[in-house]
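Checklist before submission:
- one chain only
- standard amino acids only
- sequence pasted in full

Submission:
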Amino acid sequence: MNLFLRLALMCFVFVSAAVGLFFSRSADAVPVFARKYQTACQTCHWATFPALNSFGRAFRDNGYTFPSDDEVYVKDTPVAMGGESWKKLFPKALWPSDIPHLPPLSVLVTSDFNYTPQISDGETSFNGIGEVELLTAGTLGESLSWFGAMALFENPGPTQASGTLVERLFGVYTPTLFGKKGLVNIEFGMFEPRATPRSEHLSIIGTAQYLFNTWPTLPTGNFTTFSVNQKGLELFGGKNGPKGKGGFLWAVGILNGEPQHEVMESWEGNTENYGEDIVVNVEDKWRGADNAFDMNNSKDYYGRLSYKIGGMGVMGGGTTDESAKDTENWQDNSLTLSGFFYRGNTGFFNDPVAATGWHTSGNRFWRYGTEFDFYWWNFNLFGAATFFRDDTRSDVTIDGVSGSNFDADLYTAELRWVALPWIIPAARFENMNPGYDAGDLDSFNRYSADINVILRANIKLLVGAAFADGEAPQMSLFDDTYRLGIQIAF
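Returned file contents:
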């Protein structure tokens, strides 16, 4: 199917989905923080969940509390674990805390219908209930908070059973320094590193994941990306700029590194997905190491620095009432510029096709780049240049060609638009340029787009499509996909 026909089909699907949706009405959503503050989800989300607006980002970076006077806005009064007078008696008394009055739990239900032309001359699949995800979040006193996400039920396809998996679970300590919160925060547990150019968990294009978060360095079998939910420790913080506008954000972290055993197991037996010429037998990596916590003893580290020009202060700006407006909350005329890096050490095969010559370490790799995030009126334009640099300790040989440098350059552009408060289309373009010493791949482009239609404040219809041009590797990651789905959060 040529590019014109694909784009025409995408437009047809988008228009068809929009017809009849004028019957939608507004309603309040009721996830964890909506219940706690008795406010709409749009207070923190950028027109549609899960994307965050400027206030939502400040709320997260202040330890999941309002930037100022949080206790004034809490409607679900927490259960006190001690009195304020205990603070004066410390260390001869326990420091007081509190716990939520209501169970801090929410549920996200997803159902999808997908059409993939490459599979069996055009496979259609309806997964019924594709995933039921349990979300938990809240605060414990004035400086501790947590967030967690667990797939209670996940149906990846007819060939695999459903499973339960803890995707993220982390705590955040947000002390008050110099009379302010958010200057320094400590995050610990299993989380998405802030090194990622853009969070996968906050994307409103769900038909295809970002390539900078999913691209494997195929010749070496390096599956480490920015957004694998890894176990580690992160320090992050920020400060508003002049007159409370914009400001800078920073983050540094150290991670266990290589994806955990249960993540690697998902690749076992799936060698057909890695291309016809480059086959990676991941099972060999864990041979004799069934109980291994990690592939090697090295730890990964990363950093990010951002500066926002204009718009709301990165830690909240103006009064809380002004910051937390419910209407047109996506508008935040501003430009954010960022630089990031990720440094790690992983294993590799000397001969990945035959899966021989395995080393548990020796591929010292970099992931780094720059990005911009521009907001104007009802539009958001994002762009990133991401560079993958893998350098193996000894040569990798494929089809008689050897080398140790496996580089790739990726350029990403994404446009989101609030056409109406309940219709939010988004489109993404990605240009990947591998430059491997051995097992080289051609440069290719991938296109993806979704339209989010908010049927209710906590219910949305998703219509999307994703496809790559003919130079893309023969992997399921790049199969043409057309999607119709619904998500319900409560």
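Reviewer check: Residues 3-18 form the longest helix (16 residues).
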